[in-house]
């Protein structure tokens, strides 16, 4: 048996690969599609992203805690503002095809991961698009964000990966601003 995709908002389907794999494993089954996809992601996609997450979280090990496909159909409504996680982590949004602004570009509220901003603070809205295959949108998992409405005739398909510190409190991050400087923003390396 396979896990069905979940329609979180009208026209927007989420398929959680890690959950599908764990559920199948707990039943003694193997969801071969999910397992194969996770193996490919772990071997080809995750290593450079895991390295960035280790650097951002100031730890030598991070855990892949979310691997999810999102499929926004034409006419999909905008998501509500949300955070991927209450704890510090790093989320990567990877387009599987070109994404135009009309396809429901991801909208971010800069700084909301650190200052506890409410979704009403849309004056700071940052829209991230277009994205092409090979691009990666990366943000702190606590950042308020949402997928916009898809007003295009095309589907918006992305892979979302999230990495977290596997053991809370083991990173080398200062526990308060008084203890030391904040980690520096990540910058993409030149290809």
Could you characterize the architecture of this molecule?
The N and C termini lie far apart (42 Å). By secondary structure, the protein is α+β, with helices and mostly antiparallel strands. The strands form two sheets. The protein has a six-stranded antiparallel beta sheet. A three-stranded antiparallel beta sheet has the order 6-5-8, with no helix packed on it. It has three helices and nine strands. 21% of the residues lie in helices and 25% in strands. Helix 1 (17-26) crosses helix 2.
How would you summarize the topology of this molecule?
Layout: E1 6-9, E2 12-16, H1 17-26, H2 32-57, E3 63-72, E4 89-95, E5 106-108, H3 112-115, E6 126-128, E7 137-140, E8 145-147, E9 156-164
Antiparallel strand pairs: 1-2, 2-3, 3-9, 4-7, 4-9, 5-6, 5-8
Helix pairs in contact: 1-2
Short description:
By secondary structure, the chain is α+β, with helices and mostly antiparallel strands. Helices cover 21% and strands 25% of the residues.
Key structural traits:
191 residues, six-stranded antiparallel sheet, 3 helices, 21% helix, 25% strand, globular
